[in-house]
Amino acid sequence: MMIKFLNIFYFYYPLLPSCYAAGEQTRAPLGRVRSGQGSLNVNSKLFTDDILESNILGPYFEMMEAYKEFLSTLSSEQLCCLSNTVGFFIILVVIHSITTTLLGNKIISYFNLENKYPKISKYLKYREKMGNYYIIFSMFMIYLVSIYYICLNLYMFFSY
Prior knowledge:
Distance between the termini: 63 Å
Number of helices: 7
Largest sheet: none
Number of strands: 0
């Protein structure tokens, strides 16, 4: 199983630690394992050191630390403004998704796709049903975010 894993991900060598993409160092043991002449020791120091040192999420964590440091320098009014901006951006994204869902339904009915392509009519009916649930969820999210930000603004207004 490990051999297949290494073969599948051999083509993604920029993402893997250097020992996996080392060329002959990796290909020779795999060739011996395939032919039954040797074994691949996964617990060897060659594999574990590079795996422990490689951190794919390192830049993400650095960015989060910088963002936390930035937030610690803001005053409460600036945090409220930033929070309002994020909230209204979320509402705009949800309204955009509702609009595209409704527009997609209008396009499907305008071009009469269910009758023109009966093979995909089952998919289109399922899409319409899931679209309705998605619209209900999106409306709920709009109300939830709006109520949260109204309460936050009232709290900021009366606390200062």
